[in-house]
Specification:
Blueprint (H helix, E strand, L loop, with lengths): L1 E6 L4 E8 L3 E9 L1 H5 L6 H23 L8 E7 L3 H18 L3 E5 H12 L7 E6 L4 E6 L5 E6 L5 H11 L7 H8 L24 H17 L5 H27 L3 E5 L6 H14 L2 E3 L3 H4 L4 H9 L20
Parallel strand pairs: 1-4, 4-5, 6-9, 9-10
Antiparallel strand pairs: 1-2, 2-3, 6-7, 7-8
Helix pairs in contact: 2-3, 4-11, 5-7, 6-8, 8-9
Length: about 325
Amino acid sequence: MIILAIETSCDETGVAISRNGREILANKLHSQADLHALYGGVVPEIASRNHMLILAKLVESALHEAGLQKSDLDAVAVTYAPGLIGALLVGVNFAKSMAYALGVPLIPVHHIHGHIAANYIAYPALEPPFLCLVVSGGHSQLVDVRGYTDMRVIGATRDDAAGECFDKVARVLGLGYPGGKALDDLAQSGSDSAYDLPRASVDSAPLDMSFSGLKTAVLNKIHNAEQKGEVLDRPGLAASFAAAVSDTLVPRAMLAASLLGHTKLCVAGGVAANTRIRADLDAAARRAGCTLYLPPQSLCGDNAAMIACQAFYEKRPSPLDNLAQNAYATMPL
């Protein structure tokens, strides 16, 4: 089954083509990071407009790379939720039009389902059940993956997502947008014990997380140093912050795996590219005797290959069935 997938949930335009889900024939990604860096974060209207400008060209480029014609496609998949509503609408309406014109099914895919499916591309032998730690820009969740479309959130952040905190701290440190990679690079030359930062817990919910207090503590240290004219140990603060995030995520992931009896632990989302979190997860999984699945950094961020992969496992509607499909800014897993 040849599926063309479209991903426009935020500020990156993705188009990919897969054969039977796990074989990726083309994977194109157009980043708008330079445009949004001028404003220190994503401007939804700019993101939507640029998706419109690039999407048709990216589809043609993906078809050319795969050596296919539009008539070779068996279905069109698209991210329909969650994300920036304007950006999602661009992708959904483009996909609906393309599916209608070609007379093929439209397969809507939940964005987080897609992130989890990135592991199937990286590890072709991987099958559910397993536990997945999802750490993207807007989500920090522990997901019990019982089947390809049967998933249950068993723990989540009560406030900010870890990815939001990385971007906010990076911005205040003057590292620009997107800040996750720059903050990670800065932390490599710092000591993770340079600053004492909080690790929050939630009473009666051991698998839930909270990052707002950590974010506030880091920002206060930066502002206090500026106000007092003190020299801030920027690498040390970056390393201490990464350690605090990791100390919040990793023990909960291991606890969840133990409680559910899972011996397979997957990680998904842009924050999964962080070197400290990857190293701590690897060490913890080895100690617990779990098999850790970490997708390559190229599949951690938003991309259409993961959407194409997940679409293969979703319900396959008849042509015209999903042409009333809408986009949604929020949608439970």
